Each structure stands twice: as structure tokens, then as C-alpha cells.
Amino acid sequence: MQYDVVIGLEIHAELATKTKVFCSCKNEFGAQPNANTCPVCTGMPGALPVINKRAVELCIKAGLCFDCKISSYAVMERKNYFYPDLSKAYQISQMVHPLCVGGKIELSSGKTIRLNRIHLEEDAGKLTHISKSVGSLVDYNRGGTPLIEIVTEPDFCSSEEVDEFLKRVREALVFAGIAECKMQEGGMRCDVNLSLKPKGSKTFGTRTEMKNLNSFKSVSRAIEYEIKRQTAVLNDGDKVIQETRKWDDAKGKNLSMRTKEEAQDYRYFPDPDILPITIREEDIVRIKQEMPMLPKERRKLYEEQYLLSAQDSKQLTTNKYISDYFETCVKLYNVPKKISNWILTDLLRLVKDQEEYVFPISEESLVEIIKIVEDKKITKVIGLELLDKVITCKQSPLKLAKELNLLTIITDEQIEQILLQFKEENPKAVEQVKTDPKVISFIIGYVMKHTQGKANGAVVKELVGKMFVNK
Asked: Is 74 left (phi over 0), alpha (psi -120 to 50) or beta?
């Protein structure tokens, strides 16, 4: 039998705040275990939470990124369940009155993925399992970290759609300054709810949930595996069990963890220690005004105003650091296409093995090198040599170029003399240049060799045409 795949997502992203959501403990990754804790985030009796205004604003900002309706009234609620990493046996989250309702993201295919909501909540701690004999260790540093949860409608039908969607979400959150989304640090995680139904049927099948997937590759692999698993179960005449399953990326398979809970199992009720949140229209207007340009808007700007290709615009906006670096360079020297070429061709090769892009040269220094090249004081080849020297010596490009005698200008007369020498040595090549354009490249190479790469290629080509082709 053939089946339709139905997938819905729950995406958690840690907000880029300095402190936790209900206390003043630091919100940072990598601290010593249990160093950033207090009576509030560890749930000690009598400790009272105070909500982080910045976390609320960032949640609203996320809603604006994805065309959500921003609620004027929101309530924090207690989601009750027991697990060792949840010290107070409940999580403060939102259910009935979330901050953001609805919303959508359009995929490249034109398909619209609907959002159900985006709400604010706190993260739990982290368990490190040692062994059955020793037990597990718990670190509550992460407990109380502000999260947004983005809940979609069950609109996906393939791992490819999910992959594109997650990348769109991540780039928007990063570019808007809402979250860093460092998936290797758990800064963005995804729960996948998946079910199968007979092809064409309007009745959903029984769903399973795979929790805390923290890489795009893992999500895609987990979805493909679960589709095959559920297909085999149904084709054998068995029923899919509604349960939570844990994905083991090393083994490439998932395992049953527990029966899937329903909303009523969590016994949600309003947190009596936190007042309802009122959002005014002027608050929304202010947050809108603070919104930076998102990747889609930047790509449009690069294509329409800077006249870059769609491919170059896409490459420049795959990473916020690269996009910001490019825009700073353009403000310093308005030659977008030239700057784009240097960044995408020459700078990216220097950082291709880095986890996070950080170019080893400042925007000011790169622009200075590009100006020297564009002013024809040096060739592009010498410009690349100068780039490497500046990175090594950390000096001003112009000063370094002068010290290394790189600014020696080759005159037209000098090039003409070299071309006359070439004619004497290669009379047949001079005749062929009129019918075979490839010979021009050979001649340019000859001139470059005799000028140590300091001649301007465009000038050489022009003089070749003048002396040998159009004579």
C-alpha cells in the first residue's frame, strides 16, 4: 500500500539574552556545571520568578519574522511533569495564551508551511549519563534558559521540505539577532512528529515523536528512517504506537523511549507567581522598527540595487557575519560586484575549514587593497599577494605595498617593448592571433612573466589588439 507522509515540527531556539528568563543568572554556554544557578532556576521553595522583558521582546520579534499575530495578552503557565533535569517538577511555558499565534513560511516550491504558534518558555537542565552502575550527572546551568518554541501545523510531506524550512527558520532567527542557533551547543533543537496515512485519505494516522534532534542531517536521516519503519509496521498489518522515540545518530535508527503524552497529561494551569503579560501596540511598533533586514530582503537589495547575481546574493546571505562584512565594505567603497568577488572567491578560501566564519582581515584593509587594484596601481595577482602579506603582518596595505615595492607601475611603453620582443621571438604566433583568440592569453602570459606579474592584463590585451590584431 502507498502512504502519504504527514509531518509537524516543534522547534526550540535559545534566545540571545544575557540572563535567564525568570532570574538574573547568566545565560551562557560552557560554564562549570551548576555554576550559573540560584534558588529561582533550581525551584527552591519560596523563590519567586521575575520575567525577563528582553526575552518577551525577542519572542515577539520572532513572531514578526514569520507573520504571526502578536497577542495583546499572554499568560505563563506551569507544565507539570517529573524528570531529573527539571528540578521543580514543572516547566514554565505557555499553552492557552501564547505570545504569537499563526504565521507562515513559504518554501522555494511556493508551498506555504503554516505555523500554529510561537511561545516563550524555559529550558530544562542537562543530564550526562555515565553508566548503569555509576548513574547520571545533572547540570542545572541550562535550567531557566529562555527558549522560544515554534510549533508548525502538520504541513510537511518530506524530509526535503523540513530541511529547507529549518534552514529558513535558522537564518531568520540569526539575522534578526533573536538567537545564535548553534546547533552543536543545543542552541536550536527540533522535535519531529510523523505519521502515515493511506494515500489520498483525509484521516491522519497515529503519530510518533522524535525529540531533540540537533542537526539538519540528523533530522533528515531520522525522518527517512521513521517513514520506512512505520511503512513496514503498517504493511505487516500491525498498528503504529503513539510514543516518543529517541534517535541514535551513530546507529542510524530510533528506539522507543516512552508512551507519548497528551496535553492533558501535563495539567497546565496559569503560574500563580507570574502576572499576565500585556503587549501594547506601541511596543509592537517599536520592536518592528528595531528589526534588521532579513536574508530575503537582503538578497533582493543585492540583486536590485547592487546588481549582483542571484547566486552571489544567496552565497552572501548564507551567513550573517559574511553578509554584515560585505555591507560594511560596500559602505566604505561602493563597488559591490568587486567586493563580492573578493569575498566569495578569495576570502572564503581562507576560512573554509572553520566552524564559524571570521575573516582574518578587517573590512577597512580589504577595501584598501581593492582600491589599489581598481586604481591600477597593482594587478589582481599582486593584490592577492598583498592580501596574504597583510594577513600575516597586520599592517596597512598601502604602507606594506610601498615597503615591498609592489606599487611599481608598468607603463604602456614598457609593455609595447615587450610585445615587440615577443613578435621577434614568435612571428607565427603574431599571425595566428588574428584568427585564434586563444593566442592572446599566451601573449598576456608572456608579458606577465617579463614584468613579474605587475602589468595590467586589461591594458596588455588592449595593446595586443592595437599592435597585432587591428593593425
From this structure: beta
The type of residue at 458 is A
What does the pLDDT look like over 370-388, one tens digit per residue?
A: 999 998 888 888 899 999 9
pLDDT at 471 over 70: no
Q: How far is CA 187 from the centre of its chain?
A: 12
Rounded CA-CA distance 437/446 in Å is 15
Alpha-helical (H) ranges within 253-294 are 281-290
406-420 pLDDT per residue, tens: 876 677 888 888 888
Helices (H), 2-132: 53-65
Residue whose entry in the numeric block shows the C-alpha cell 514569520? 66
DSSP per position, 204-218? ----EEEEEE-SHHH
Nearest to 58 by CA among 212, 174, 203: 174
Contact between 454 and 415 under an 8 Å Cβ cutoff? The reply is no
Q: Report the C-alpha gap between 118 and 144 in whole angstroms.
A: 18
For CA atoms 264, 266, 267, 273, the dihedral sign is negative
Contact 416, 463 (CB under 8 A): yes
Sheet of strand 90-93, all strands in order from the earlier edge strand to the far edge = 90-93, 77-80, 269-270
**Residue 46 Ramachandran class (φ > 0 left, ψ -120 to 50 alpha, else beta):** left
Residue 207: which residues within 8 A CB-CB, separation 6 or more? 6, 8, 193, 194, 195, 240, 242, 260
Residue-wise DSSP of 172-211 = HHHHTTSB---GGGTSEEEEEEEEEEETT-SS----EEEE
Residue 388's alpha-carbon distances to 25, 361, 365, 394, in angstroms, are: 43, 9, 12, 10
Of 94, 21, 103, 98, give the one whose Cα is nearest residue 63. Answer: 103
Reported pTM: 0.84
pLDDT digits (tens, 9 = 90+) for 50-100: 999 999 999 999 999 999 999 999 999 999 998 899 999 999 999 999 999
Cell of 437: 583568440
Nearest one of 287, 31, 12 to 151, comparing CA atoms: 12
* Residue 168 identity: R
Q: Any idea of the CA torsion for 344, 350, 353, 359, to the nearest 10 degrees?
A: -80
- As a whole number of angstroms, the distance between CA 319 and CA 171 comes to 8
The three cell numbers of residue 223 are 525522518
Residues 116 and 104: their CA atoms lie apart, in Å, by 9
Amino acid at 190: C
Residue with the three cell numbers 506601541: 282
